[in-house]
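Fill in residues.
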């Protein structure tokens, strides 16, 4: 799941927790740190039962699924590999252009 989706879910859960329980959370840290996010999920579920707020359970479940979702399929390449490849491309000699096709000329030239 993209980080932007995790951040959106975390922001929505943050607003609900603030309105319903007075709890203030860090949305960016919630989207980036699984341990913190799971603790907020646990807290939200407990308060949802205590205060009878079904919205909290719904959004806690969404965040839980987002945190446990499979990582992106394409792994990130190390920056050093990307930089090395860019330097090699710059240092490579430029490709030789193909010769232009011959154009027929006037037989006697221009008079």
């Amino acid at each position: 799941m993209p980080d932007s989706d995790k951040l959106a879910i975390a922001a929505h859960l943050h607003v609900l927790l603030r309105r319903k329980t007075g709890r203030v959370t860090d949305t960016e840290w919630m989207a980036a740190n699984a341990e913190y996010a799971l603790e907020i999920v646990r807290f939200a579920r407990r308060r949802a039962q205590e205060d009878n707020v079904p919205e909290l359970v719904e959004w806690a479940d969404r965040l839980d699924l987002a945190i446990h979702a499979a990582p992106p399929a394409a792994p990130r390449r190390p920056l050093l590999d990307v930089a090395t490849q860019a330097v090699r491309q710059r240092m490579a000699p430029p490709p030789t252009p193909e010769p232009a096709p011959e154009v027929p000329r006037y037989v006697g030239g221009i008079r």
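The longest helix spans residues 3-21.
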